[in-house]
Design a protein that fits this description.
single chain, 193 residues, mainly alpha, 7 helices, 55% helix, TIGR03086 family protein, DinB/YfiT-like, Maleyloyr_isom, MDMPI_metal-binding
């Protein structure tokens, strides 16, 4: 899957553009992820980003003093922190070697390509989540849509059992690849705030 390395930078650029459009008053907006408002979803991204980066570098995970819900990572500088984290993930996962061999995400050993696809999914799916929460659209390249669909379809049952994805959403006949990817990841492509 190292060919997906080329998809990381464009997906991250679209994601970063969405982040820059989030104002203070929008942090409480609902998202398609039922358990997250915008603030909590940003906290989720900032919490797990260092874990993904460490896995891409095949380095030990960061030490976590608290769990995600208690982390409280959305301070006045959250956008700067998020942009730097995004840039580091692009640096790591934009390189084909990050996708090769095995790595660990926390204590779980897995193929590095699975973690790379998680990063791509974070940018694409959570970018869509944030954009929809704000009533905006997101531009997903056809190649990225294919990649996240393949990953969501392959990992769907396991992700649902781990409560990472919601129940699969049936999409309309003739749905786009990205709409099928959203459905496979437990998202309703027609969701509105």
């Amino acid at each position: 899957m190292s060919e997906h390395a080329a998809l990381i930078a464009p997906a991250a650029a679209e994601f970063a553009g969405i982040l820059r459009g989030i104002g203070e008053t929008e942090l409480a907006a609902r998202t398609p992820c039922a358990e997250y408002d915008v603030r909590a979803l940003l906290n989720h991204l900032l919490y797990w980003g260092p874990w993904l980066e460490a896995a891409g570098r095949k380095a030990p995970p960061p030490e976590a003093a608290t769990g995600e819900a208690e982390a409280g990572l959305i301070g006045s500088d959250w956008l700067d922190v998020a942009e730097r984290q995004t840039a580091r993930l692009v640096e790591v996962f934009g390189a084909p070697e990050a996708w090769q061999g095995m790595t660990a995400l926390g204590t779980a050993q897995m193929p590095a390509s699975v973690v790379g696809d998680m990063v791509l999914g974070e940018f694409v799916f959570h970018g869509w989540d944030l954009a929809r929460a704000l009533g905006r659209t997101v531009d997903v390249a056809p190649e990225a849509a294919e990649a996240v669909y393949a990953s969501a379809a392959a990992m769907g049952e396991q992700a649902r059992s781990m409560k990472v994805y919601g129940e699969e959403v049936n999409v309309a006949e003739g749905a786009t690849t990205f709409e099928r990817a959203l459905g496979a990841s437990g998202r309703n492509p027609g969701w509105t705030p």
